[in-house]
Amino acid sequence: MVDMTDSRTNRQISSGASDVVRRLDAVNDKVTAKRKAFEADPDDAIDKIVKFTFPTITGFVASKLLETLWNRGGKHVAKQNPLTKALSGALFAGVSSAVGFLVSQAGEHGSQALVNRRHRRNGRS
Q: pLDDT tens digits, residue range 14-25?
């Protein structure tokens, strides 16, 4: 009887298995790193909700307030010529962007301050 086992085939299987094990080890290392980063994060779910909702709500309120103030001052826009309307629109876009940036920064700093105060009160770093 002739042995059908080829040493080349065994080496290929062994090499393939080693490759799979190496890839699984890489995935395991990434998962371990993510878990450690998650465990080291001092923010809990409430902190993350505050960091998301506070800037969102302040941005929404600021945008509606700006829109109301802009529309209150621009009731005569319908009577303006197209060039004046375009310039007014461009000015509104610039003012809106600037206010949006400032409110966004203030909201992020404010939410972080709330989270930091909560951490100090609860004895976390």
A: 777 888 999 999
Helix 45-73 / helix 82-121 crossing angle, nearest 10 deg: 150
Q: Residue for token digits 């000015």?
A: 91
- Helices (H), ranges, the chain: 7-40, 45-73, 82-121
In 10 A of CB 108, how many CB atoms? 14
Q: Specify the pLDDT at position 9.
A: 63
CA 107 – CA 113 distance, rounded (Å): 10
Residue whose C-alpha is closest to residue 111's, from 41, 48, 50 = 50
Distance CA 35, CA 2 (A): 53
- Among 118, 102, 99, smallest CA distance to 50 is for 118
Please report the pLDDT score of residue 1 as a whole number: 47
